[in-house]
Amino acid sequence: MTRIFSGIKPTGHLTLGNYLGAVRQWVEAGQYEAESLFCVVDLHALTVEHDPARLRRLSRQVATLFLASGLDPERCTLFVQSHVSEHTRLAYLMECTATDGELRRMIQYKEKAAKAQASGDGVRLSLLTYPALMAADILAYDTDEVPVGEDQRQHVELTRDLAVRFNQRYGHTFTVPKVTLPTVAARVMDLQDPRSKMGKSHDSAAGIVYLLDEPGVITKKVMRAVTDSGDGGVAYDRDARPGVANLLDVLAACTGGDPAALADGYQGYGALKRDVAEAVVELLRPVRERHAALAADPAEVERVLRAGAARARALAAPVVDRAYEAIGLLAP
Ligand code: AMP
Ligand code: TRP
User: Fold this and answer.
1) Those residues with Cβ within 8 angstroms of residue 135's Cβ, 6 or more apart along the chain or in another chain
2) What pLDDT shows up at residue 10?
3) Of 197, 220, 221, 273, which residue is the catalytic one?
């Protein structure tokens, strides 16, 4: 059976981008056609300035939202990365496989390092080595497929390179994984700045729809979305009209249509925005309601995570042992 692994960092409240680009795909494909593991990758949240209390809160919230979004702990393994030490054990071997140049070429590193430097915080070394840990997350489970949004493609490609290189040098050890991208809404853009990704760690919340936003808040954010000056007609053109294209992408992702075909049904931006707002509100309503019910019973969420970590450990340990042996380390 196909093995799937993916994860989300608890660095902020989950957004519509996380839902459409990641979690919803996991629910739809992952847990029924494959053996899947979904992880709150908390160690990755330590690569930039962080607040310990907020990290704890967000880690619980992300795990709760996994369940609220419909991931079924009977069908897939839900766990927290730091609960399974195999990830960091294998990350070191990945650091010994990757090169400094390779890691410095990562777009996300360049962007986040520049931002950390500009704010005077200093760049944590783990920001550079992060893709080695991400490769370990994936390779420790003999993963076949990694469903992520477009922005993570480069990291998964590096993971493939590292797996191939390790296998060539030390004998076949790892399954070489492939990335799977969603067909629509692989990249949901910020409603106020449609040329940049809707990201959970942005400073301004005006262009970001959070999974737990109230319906009124969602509607307000969508109605105030930046659209493009043009002849006023609605057309799907990602380069020339990124704001409108983003709204059409979101509508298509919510309703199952095709963004270019949907454009034909609108004369003006107002009607389009109203439909987008309604579609998003209805899409997220059940998630928010289930989240509220689950958050009232944190012990149950903890139980799910503990059971998930035990299952994950049992899968990862033999793979990581195999890698330690292959690279020339003595068995303990
Ligand atoms: P992150 O928020 O960077 O931890 O990303 C978690 C997952 O959500 C990854 O698979 C990302 O590719 C995906 N993701 C994050 N933001 C977006 C977005 N704006 N559009 C589509 N997918 C996204
Ligand atoms: N780096 C990913 C992100 O920022 C999160 C992540 C960490 C991940 N490890 C992973 C995703 C392994 C898929 C597989 O979104």
Assistant:
1) 91, 94, 98, 155, 158, 159, 162, 163
2) 97
3) 197
